[in-house]
Structures are given as C-alpha cells and as structure tokens.
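Quick note —
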Amino acid sequence: MRAFRAEFGLPPHRYLTGRRVDLARHLVLEGMAPAAVATAAGFHDQAHLTRHFRRVTGTTPGRFVARPG
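Predicted structure written out below.
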C-alpha cells in the first residue's frame, strides 16, 4: 500500500473509487439511468453511487447531467 500511495498519491481504495466515479460520469453523460450506472460502475446501489459521486465531483449524478453547457 505504501508503494501504491507513493506512485499514485492516493490509497488504493480511494483510487479505485475515483476510477469508478469517472466511469459513472461517462455513463451518465451517455444517458444511462443512474440505477443502471451504479451497477455498471461497481457500486452497491444508487445511493452508494450518489454519495461517492458527490464527494468526487461536488454534485449529484442528476445535476451533473442537467448542468447547462
């Protein structure tokens, strides 16, 4: 774990969660339903996805898609 953290600057679990959120971000933008995105990205359920998505991006998946621009 020390070598991983030294290489990537994050603990392995936080890195993996970040990668899952990145995948979820792409799937949500493609129009996939949040519940389906949660399963596809490896989260337990939609609430689990939303909690981590908000922590990483600062917003919920629904608001991320609805943002202007």
